User: Which sequence fits this backbone?
């Protein structure tokens, strides 16, 4: 489970990156769609009401990023995939306090605790730990170093596993 504060911060970072790209290509459909989704995600995250499963399912920017942007803009694709993952795994506990935002803001940037932050499917895991793929909700799992990271299937394109910054075991 991700805190809403952390989900807000990753969504804002992805929105900032999207806005930069829209300045150069204001009608590019991928960027326009990403901005629409990120704004909707931020609106839902700021509402203290629980986010419903249907609201979480509408987010497809992680799949879009993997399919449309992975090869040409990998850092931007990572930002979108992280925002989608954290939104879909955001806590149902309501309001975001300023203390929560401050704590979330002090976390290390993406990839800073691990020199390798991503791995394609059907490749050996480069580092033992928890990984997830935006291609499948609830995909977070632990891989051993050298274990082959499997394909999840579907029509969204290649499966790309991302290092989870939260290396805590799941709470049962």
Assistant:
């Amino acid at each position: 489970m991700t805190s809403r504060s952390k989900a807000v911060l990753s969504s804002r970072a992805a929105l900032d990156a999207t806005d930069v790209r829209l300045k150069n290509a204001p009608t590019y459909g991928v960027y326009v769609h990403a901005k629409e989704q990120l704004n909707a995600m931020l609106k839902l995250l700021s509402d203290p009401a629980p986010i419903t499963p249907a609201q979480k399912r509408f987010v497809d920017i992680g799949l879009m990023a993997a399919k449309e942007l992975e090869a040409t803009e990998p850092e931007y694709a990572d930002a979108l995939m992280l925002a989608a993952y954290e939104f879909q795994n955001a806590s149902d506990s309501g309001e975001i306090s300023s203390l929560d935002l401050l704590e979330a803001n002090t976390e290390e940037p993406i990839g800073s605790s691990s020199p390798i932050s991503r791995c394609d499917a059907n490749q050996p895991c480069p580092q033992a730990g928890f990984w997830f793929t935006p291609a499948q909700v609830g995909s977070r799992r632990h891989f051993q170093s050298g274990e082959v990271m499997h394909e999840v299937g579907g029509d969204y394109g290649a499966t790309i596993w991302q290092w989870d910054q939260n290396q805590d075991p799941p709470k049962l």
In short: Strands lie at 118-120, 123-124, 129-132, 141-143, 148-149, 160-163. The longest helix spans residues 4-24.
